[in-house]
Amino acid sequence: MRPLNTTPHRDPAPSRVSYRFQRLWLTPLFRRAVCVGLPVLALSYGAGWYATRPHNIEAMQDKVAELRRFVEERPEFQVKLMAIDGASDTIADDIREIVPVDFPVSSFDLDLEGMKNRIAELDAVAQVDVRVRAGGILQIQIEERMPVAVWRMGRDIELLDAVGRRVAVVASRTARPQLPLLAGQGAEQHVPEALELLAAARPVASRIRGLVRMGERRWDIVLDRGQRIMLPEQDPMQALLHVMALEQTQDLLARDIIAVDMRNPNRTTLKMSPSAVEDLQRIKDDR
Asked: Could you count the other beta carbons within 10 Å of the beta carbon of residue 220?
């Protein structure tokens, strides 16, 4: 009689955990997470751990700095000279003074935006463009402000452009005798109007000594022989054209008068010289 086999038979069916795992393994997302996600996570953890060690950080910084120096010091990135176009000799000298550069220098060490901002602060500079050109040239392109008038305010004498921006400071009026002279507080804020008035007064241009801003409200046109055309605050152009018409038809300004007062648009007032007043009084007395 054979003995009974008391060893339990192994159940060929998978366990519940194994069954669930196999079912999940059939899911593409789960397989991708296991095959890709876990290695990436492990590598990220390892890299993070390595990168947080102080001696490793220092070594990586040294390596990056060495690589950067290697690139920056290559000949193709070296700037060897500066070229300034569109600027007068005086402005070019000012630019070289405010943006000193020791050549040769790597283009990576040049603060082009900072240079541009410093140059733009110069009174005579309207626009500026700064760039590194092929061949290792620091190119600075300048558009200067063009002075159109001389402005005297107290002891200060400045050159102004067409919108009233200061171009330069000069020592005396004789530095730019060909430019019209403006004077008075606030005159720099009304340069376009002043230029229009000067153009309208062209018939007596040779006699004009300058325009004076009176009380920051209106203009006086100063002529030779001590004469003045006193313009109103409102619509000075119309008043000046009226005076020019009288000048061309009646030689108004050739007479012995001190001022043509147009401050009241409805009434033209002539201020006569003391000698003219005496002559007029003598004529009245003779009558």
From this structure: 19
